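Deviation from plan, reported transparently: IPE complex.
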Amino acid sequence: MAAPTANSPAHVAIIMDGNGRWATQRGLPRAEGHRRGVETVRTITFAARDLGVRMLTLYAFSIENWKRPQDEVGTLMSLLEFYLKKELETFVRDRVRFRTIGRTEELPAGIRKLLTATAEETKHFTDYTLVLALNYGARTEVMDAARAYAAAVANGEAKLNDPNWSSFSRYLYTSDMPDPDLVIRTSGERRVSNFLLLQAAYAEFVFTPVLWPDFTKADLEAAIADYNRRERRFGLTSEQIRATAPANVR
Ligand code: IPE
Ligand code: IPE
Ligand code: MG
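Because the crystal trials were delayed, the predicted structure below was used instead.
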């Protein structure tokens, strides 16, 4: 395993896009693009860890994706089921903690069972976490959080007159996760498509034209190198940031 660099982004989130176009360009059915996309998920899961990343979040299925043709939704669900059945053993062997964000309760029962089992059997691993965003949408997440917050206010667990970001963000799906440092989108699209809108408030974005089935460890390395050339200021001035940065990242 390569030694992590001092400034590897701790949490990388990826909008995996371009499976359909990858297949269409080759005269193949879109399903073939999704199958190849799963191979990339496997490669990148371990590549990210080799590069010193501690948490990898992959946008696998959005709430809006239900509106695709029924047979494509069916293909994506069966691929997910196949992937989960095959990966559990690998996650346990390679000490990958697995978890999800999104309304997983609306996914088919077979998948829900696999998700629960995989999360349960890997929950004690602490070095590296893979998060799948499944049936995820940021706007739905905010509405779910607002509802949970209102219920907590009603039963006295939360105070209405004392809301700050750390008390409210506890009701998001990501309550126990760090914010993403780097968000990558493949396939040349430059939009967020309802992904981690609040958590990515200060994330760095890298857009690459590479289609997801073609995305390699070298592409991830290039995105991380791009991230490392930037200065994250969080609203402060460059001078303030340089005054507080540890010597090795100055
Ligand atoms: C990403 O590839 C996979 C999902 C959104 C599930 P797409 O299927 O969106 O591929 P394009 O954008 O049509 O090429
Ligand atoms: C975003 O990709 C969702 C996932 C990667 C799961 P889409 O392909 O669904 O996004 P749009 O429709 O191009 O914005
Ligand atoms: Mg797409």
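Residues 16-21, 61, 65, 76, 187, 212 surround IPE (ligand 1) (CB under 6 Å). We consider this an acceptable substitute for the interim report.
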